[in-house]
Write a structure and sequence with these properties.
The complex is a heterodimer of chains A (295) and B (85). Chain A is α/β, with parallel strands linked by helices. Chain A is built from eleven helices and ten strands. An eight-stranded mixed beta sheet of chain A has the order 2-1-3-4-8-7-9-10, sandwiched between helices. In chain A, strands 5-6 form a two-stranded antiparallel sheet. In chain A, helix 1 crosses helix 7 and helix 3 packs parallel to helix 5. Chain A is globular and about 65 Å long. Chain A starts with 19 loop residues before the first helix and ends in a 6-residue tail after the last helix. The relative contact order of chain A is 0.13. With 85 residues, chain B is α+β, with helices and mostly antiparallel strands. In chain B, 12% of the residues lie in helices and 21% in strands. The chains are: A alpha/beta (295), B alpha+beta (85). At the A-B interface, helix 1 and helix 9 of A face helix 2 of B. Chain A: GO terms for molecular function: oxidoreductase activity; thiamine pyrophosphate binding.
Chain lengths: 295, 85
């Protein structure tokens, strides 16, 4: 059983008040335990937790580049194996490093079958450089590189389905979770690090600065994403969908209207056409994973 | 300051950075209303809610005053007050 009182991330890091990724970092290490080595790509978490020499981490932590954390982790894992050691090797990377820049190295590590756990904290854009869109940015979200305006409704492409891409690599364990359900993260991380082979976990981590909401509502936003069907918590074990969080679904407006990145869908007038498109994405998720509670 | 080889640094040195100075609103914990569920400690993004003799106490050296604990507390035992500095 994971020790929930374990604190391997120290106070004094420079994350915004109410930061989703900072909470995720604490929860990940509660699940993984203190015998863990972390490889972290460039990203918000790297920037706020390690301005030299004030690292917040109390476990070995290696910074790679944006693109190669999975390759660095592969090397560490191979070396530990050779030395007969059994520390858990995990990557903690943002969605930019995972969905866009690091895909090559992640695919390589999963194909070679290294015993690592790759964790992506998904805040749905490049937040540390000032909210640029990534492959994880949802449809119609306004970012600094997909700004909503007269000629644009925000990000024109849907979110990439990274968990399914890695499940297709034959990964023994692929899971998604959300900081809205802290115990679920601890449980899934603990399960992943104890499975032999490359595992992938994607954590939904609302970003108050990038999405435009008050820092006290970080968890509520996570819950709304799940309750509207725009985020699905599931586990895929050996290619088979094992567990899905079922909900009584709310309309997507409930989730969209509380965030500034979707404000253009409500002002100056309600854009029902675009909201219907986003509702269709939620409906498709519900259909695909069967998240609707039958009453 | 001189950089060490590989920019290695000792664990947990972020403690030198007292983020409590960022705070505008201060969480006040009401121990009478508290049911000791531990939610505030589990979800604090700073990890600065400490336990002392079974009571939950925020470490004001590091609390940034985000208000997440107050918003999520099921017993509504935490209130946010504007802080005079």
């Amino acid at each position: 059983m994971a020790d929930k009182s374990l604190e391997m991330v120290e106070c004094g890091h420079r994350a915004c008040g109410g930061c989703g990724p900072a909470l995720a970092a604490r929860l990940i290490l509660k699940g993984a335990g203190e015998r863990t080595i972390i490889c972290a790509a460039t990203g918000c978490m790297e920037v706020f937790s390690t301005p030299y020499p004030q690292t917040a981490w109390k476990v070995p932590w290696v910074h790679s580049l944006f693109q190669n954390s999975a390759a660095v982790a592969s090397g560490i894992e191979a070396s530990l194996k050779r030395q007969g050691r059994d520390e858990h090797v995990i990557c903690i990377c943002g969605d930019g490093a995972t969905f866009d820049i690091g895909v090559l190295c992640i695919s390589g590590a999963f194909e070679r079958g290294h015993n690592i756990t790759y964790i992506c904290y998904d805040n749905e854009a490049y937040m540390n450089t000032g909210i640029q869109r990534s492959g994880a940015t949802p449809f119609d979200a306004s970012t600094t590189t997909s700004p909503a305006g007269k000629n644009s409704l925000g990000n024109s492409r849907p979110k990439k389905d990274m968990p399914q891409i890695l499940a297709a690599h034959g990964a023994p364990y692929v899971a998604t979770c959300s900081i809205a359900y802290p115990n679920d993260i601890i449980k899934k991380v603990e399960r992943a690090v104890n499975i032999d082979g490359p595992c992938y976990i994607q954590i939904h981590t609302p970003c108050c600065t990038g999405w435009g909401f008050d820092g006290s509502k970080t968890i509520e936003l996570g819950k709304l994403a799940i309750e509207t069907g725009l985020w699905v918590n599931f586990e895929i074990v050996n290619g088979k969908l094992e567990k899905v969080k079922k909900v009584k679904r709310k309309p997507v407006e409930d989730y969209l209207k509380v965030q500034k990145r979707f404000a253009h869908l409500f002002k100056p007038s309600l854009n029902t056409t675009e909201i219907a498109k986003i509702q269709a994405i939620a409906d498709a998720n519900a259909e695909k994973y069967g998240i609707d509670l039958k009453i | 300051m001189a950089l060490r080889i590989g920019c290695a640094s000792a664990p947990g040195q972020a403690r030198d950075n007292k983020t409590g100075s960022w705070r505008v609103f201060k969480p006040i914990f009401d121990h009478e209303k508290c049911t000791s569920c531990g939610m505030c400690q589990l979800i604090c993004p700073e990890g600065c809610v400490l336990t002392d003799d079974g009571k939950f106490i925020p470490d004001y050296d590091f609390c940034k005053g985000c208000g997440l604990c107050a918003y999520e507390c099921p017993a509504k035992a935490i209130t946010m007050e504007t802080e005079e500095k």
